[in-house]
Design a protein that fits this description.
heterodimer; A: alpha/beta; Rossmann fold; 7-stranded mixed β-sheet; B: alpha/beta; 12% strand
Chain lengths: 318, 280
């Protein structure tokens, strides 16, 4: 078990820390992996609590069913895999065995290696659909944390509800945005930069890009608000509507396709309550191999593109 | 805490089976939809289990030590709901509302909708996995209940069944999980041998299970097979009951057309007459 990192760390590294914290706080947690525990970091929980952790082999559908059975007996059941397989490889099991029974079973998916920053493994390992699928499961909370600390707190937070949840973590080590004084709350956006001309709403790895985009824009005299919208579902409607009212233009940024993820969730709020110009930054084509930071450039998941989207959407304000 | 009833005689079980069959055809007739074929085939397997083997207390359906019956072949709700009603989980009067708006008795089982339903099913292949979760939890909490999982033979086409089949012996859950296969030889689109030819007994053996084969309509044979499944063995046990789809109603027997079709007014009278069923 490695010590909690203080600096750059991968969000996936938070997973075992959060599970151990939950057990220490008295939550009756069990956890399952499907032969990717060295990558999801689930094995570290298994080393600490072997009776509470199982590897089910390369069998995601079975893993979901086992978790649902555990939950039926009162356990809080976590399952982990890559975001390209969980939920995609076992969507029907999540729907029928987890989402539908009794308004939602107490099963938590923690899917690592989300987005293109998986890197060299290429398109089949790079999840760009997981948020679309997860948000379609009616009782699920869906969360994409931006750094280690928020990931740890988000996983602990979902572990303390009885609802099903999907938390997406990432492979690469990324800069810390928060320290232990941060308080994550499901369904609450976190204001990172104040601003009046446009709001950049981001999740996951794109939060840090949005902060840097706001710095670029500040140099041009554009005041950009930045919201860390880690919780895609339930979306923080109030934060979205305040941003629309007070800045009049929105950019969403996510390491995901723009159909069904963060951008869609934000647009839905705006469309039904306060139509506002919006621009979407995401990846609407399948991935390829490369180093993770090269891929961010290749797919233009960059501060420069977020800033360009902000300029464009500001131009659409009335 | 009540557990099982005093062992029922084969005559008593046969009478229950007639009532269950009568419920099945009436429910599907009244709803004018549902799955009679795979319900009628499962009757002896279910009745012998619920009366003589399943440790349960219908008055206390959430009893933590209860055995779990998990209907993985979720379309067999006419069978399942009739069995639960006859065993005392809820009033048989509810059966008349099967598949209607506002009724807890949906076309496929909804967990917790009425007492005794352990799992939502209907999308095939998921029950054995769910049972593994129950069984692992029971082991963790030092409870000694069993999970009985009923699957259809068509259902065995689903890959998830085999993910779970390999996991049960791997996790050492043979004394906690018993599989029951209703081998009626017909699935949705036709005869199983035409749709996807398999040999269930050989497949389960190949996955490390002790397979107990029986005539699934010979109540005494079924009762003995389930008793054998309860006895300790170094492998998990799978009971394969060789059954007839639509058993007990001549025009439904071995007829793929009655996998998911309701009888007409003329047919229901004939069906009830043939079952000779003990219902008023």
């Amino acid at each position: 078990m490695t010590a909690p990192p203080a600096q750059a760390a991968a969000t996936r590294e938070a997973y075992p820390h959060a599970l151990i914290q939950l057990v220490e706080e008295g939550i009756d947690v069990v956890a399952l992996d499907a032969d990717l525990s060295v990558s999801t970091m689930g094995y570290q929980f298994g080393e600490k609590y072997p009776e509470r952790w199982h590897s089910v082999g390369v069998a995601e559908a079975n893993m979901v069913g086992i978790a649902a059975g555990y939950a039926a007996t009162g356990k809080t059941a976590f399952i982990a895999s890559f975001a390209s397989f969980l939920p995609g490889r076992c969507f029907d099991q999540l729907r029928t065995s987890v989402a539908q029974p009794k308004g939602g079973m107490n099963v938590k998916c923690v899917a690592s290696h989300g987005g293109v920053t998986v890197g060299e493994d290429g398109a089949s390992a790079q999840a760009l659909e997981d948020l679309t699928l997860a948000t379609s499961l009616i009782p699920f909370d869906v969360i994409v944390p931006a750094d280690f600390e928020s990931a740890k707190q988000a996983i602990v937070a979902v572990g303390k509800t009885t609802r099903p949840a999907y938390v997406r973590t990432g492979r690469p080590k990324i800069p810390a945005l928060y320290d232990s004084s941060f308080r994550f709350e499901i369904g609450k956006a976190n204001l990172l930069c104040r601003g009046t001309d446009v709001t950049l709403i981001a999740c996951g790895i794109m939060v840090e890009k949005a902060v840097r985009a706001s710095e670029l824009l500040a140099g041009e005299g554009i005041s950009a608000r930045v919201l860390d919208m880690a919780t895609i579902k339930p979306i923080d409607r109030e934060a979205v509507l305040s941003a629309a009212r007070e800045t009049g233009a929105i950019v969403t940024a996510e390491e995901h396709q723009t159909h069904g993820g963060l951008g869609t969730a934000v647009a839905r709020v705006l469309a039904d309550s306060l139509p506002t110009p919006i621009a979407f930054v995401g990846v609407d084509r399948y991935g390829t191999s490369g180093k993770w930071d090269e891929l961010l450039g290749y797919f233009e998941l960059t501060p420069e593109r977020v800033a360009a989207a902000a300029r464009e959407v500001i131009g659409r304000k009335r | 805490m009540p557990t099982t009833l005093a062992p029922a005689s084969i005559t008593e079980l046969t009478d229950v089976a007639k009532r269950v069959r009568s419920h099945i055809v009436q429910m599907v007739y009244q709803a004018q939809s549902g799955h009679p074929g795979g319900s009628l085939s499962a009757v002896e397997l279910g009745v012998a289990l619920f009366w003589n083997h399943l440790r349960c207390d219908p008055a206390n359906p959430d009893w933590p030590e209860r055995d779990r019956f998990i209907l993985s072949k979720g379309h067999a709700t006419p069978f399942y709901y009739s069995l639960l009603a006859e065993r005392g989980y809820f009033s048989p009067e509810l059966l008349a509302k099967f598949r209607t708006l506002g009724s807890p008795l949906q076309g496929h089982p909804s967990m917790g909708a009425v007492p005794g339903i352990e799992m939502s099913s209907g999308s095939l292949g998921q029950g054995l996995s769910f049972a593994i979760g129950h069984a692992l939890s029971g082991r963790l909490d030092r409870r000694d209940f069993r999970c009985w999982v009923m699957m259809g033979d068509g259902e065995l086409n689903e890959g998830q069944v085999w993910e779970a089949a390999m996991a049960v012996p791997h996790f050492g859950l043979g004394d906690r999980i018993i599989a029951i296969i209703d081998r009626n030889g017909i699935q949705n689109d036709g005869f199983a041998d035409d749709i996807m030819k398999t040999n269930p007994a050989e497949m389960w053996r190949g996955f490390g299970w002790h397979v107990i084969e029986c005539d699934g309509h010979d109540m005494a044979a079924v009762d003995q097979a389930l008793a054998e499944a309860e006895r300790p063995h170094d492998k998990p046990r799978c009971v394969v009951g060789y059954t007839t789809k639509g058993k007990g109603v001549s025009f439904m027997e071995n007829n793929p057309g009655f996998h998911g079709k309701a009888p007409t007014e003329q047919q229901i009278a004939q069906a009830l007459g043939e079952i000779g069923g003990g219902l008023k």
